Automatic annotation (TrEMBL):
Domain AAA+ ATPase: 25-187
InterPro entries: AAA+_ATPase, ATPase_dyneun-rel_AAA, CbbQ/NirQ/NorQ/GpvN, P-loop_NTPase
Gene Ontology terms for molecular function: ATP binding; ATP hydrolysis activity
Organism of origin: Hydrogenophaga pseudoflava (Pseudomonas carboxydoflava)
Source species, domain of life: Bacteria
Any Pfam family the entry gives: AAA_5
SMART domains per UniProt: AAA (SM00382)
Protein name: ATPase family associated with various cellular activities (AAA)
Gene3D superfamilies recorded: P-loop containing nucleotide triphosphate hydrolases (3.40.50.300)
């Protein structure tokens, strides 16, 4: 079982190494990186390449670790017990009818090995990773309501992503294999764009990439545009048939690119960029 990249996803050598290291070690792969650098997509692509179903758990600030294991639906049970029909009376007898299985339960009890994505773990509160330590380590947990031990039939391949909004606890880090997806250099970015827009003209791509990296390297930006923003922007440029000249100024000075709203997502950054362009033009 080895991951060797895929048609839709450009994986650098070190990223492939990291995926395979996590598979060999049988440890979760913790992937960090700026938003939009392909962390979520990595899990989807690896799962597909290795022919495993992917179970996804998207974490929010309110998500609790227990929800990934199971939840007991007491409200439904109470309603059934008050309904007084033959059906509901039958259901009430077995508490298992009110256990809602979480993604870990599903992953552990699946008949074939599955991939499990715990996406954006840094969104949850600080206790969340620690609360899952034991389950991910031992690949089992206990359901008190039904008094059964849920033990993984096959060890799932676990991906955990983080946008780095919060530090993760040391005990948690110790159990993962870690990889940081660096922001793609120009060559890698060209390959990524090529996967999405194979017919894009070379000149337009070169000009757009220059503008993109100029914007990205602007000191003091609050939110740097990332891969997915570049892709959005290119899509718009093509849809609107923006001519090459609109991206290139003859004297190589910076100008405000068309549809810049696809790249810069807050007014401070737009203002900063406009100021720079203005200063540049005055210095002509
Ligand atoms: N290496 C890559 N190869 C192909 N497409 C990529 C790559 N990295 C990012 N993308 C594009 O960027 C989009 C955002 O990626 P995503 O996985 O959602 O980022 P993240 O989870 O890191 O925020 C994807 O839908 C994909 O279109
Ligand atoms: Mg993501």
């Amino acid at each position: 079982m080895k991951f060797q990249g895929s048609e839709n996803y450009v994986a650098t050598q070190d990223l492939m190494l990291a995926v395979n290291a996590a598979i060999t070690l049988k440890r979760p792969l913790l992937v960090k990186g700026e938003p939009g650098t392909g962390k979520t997509m990595l899990a989807e692509e690896v799962a597909q390449a290795l022919d495993m179903p992917l179970l996804q758990w998207h974490i929010k600030s309110t998500t609790k670790a227990q929800q990934g294991l199971y939840e007991y639906d007491a409200v439904n049970r109470l309603r059934d017990s008050q309904l007084n029909t033959a059906d509901s009376a039958e259901r009430v007898k077995d508490i298992r009818n009110y256990i809602v299985q979480g993604v870990l339960w599903q992953a552990f009890t699946a008949d074939q090995p599955v991939a499990l994505l715990i996406d954006e773990i840094d969104k949850a509160d600080i206790e969340f990773p620690n609360d899952l330590l034991r389950e991910l380590d031992r690949m089992e947990f206990y359901c008190y309501e039904t008094r059964e031990l849920i033990k993984a039939k096959h060890r799932p391949l676990v991906f955990i992503t983080s946008n780095n909004e919060k530090e993760l606890p040391d005990a948690f880090l110790r159990r993962c294999f870690f990889h940081y997806i660096k922001f793609p250099d120009a060559d890698t970015m060209k390959k990524i764009v090529d996967v999405h827009f194979p017919t894009l003209k070379d000149e337009l791509l070169t000009a757009a990439m220059k503008t993109f990296y100029d914007v990205r390297n602007l000191p003091g930006l609050k939110k740097k545009p990332s891969t997915s923003e570049l892709l959005d922007w290119l899509k718009l440029l093509m849809a609107e048939d923006i001519p090459l000249e609109a991206l290139q100024s003859a004297d190589n000075k910076v100008s405000i690119p068309p549809l810049v709203g696809a790249l810069l997502k807050n007014e401070q950054d737009t203002t900063l960029f406009e100021k720079l362009v203005f200063m540049n033009q005055r210095n002509r």
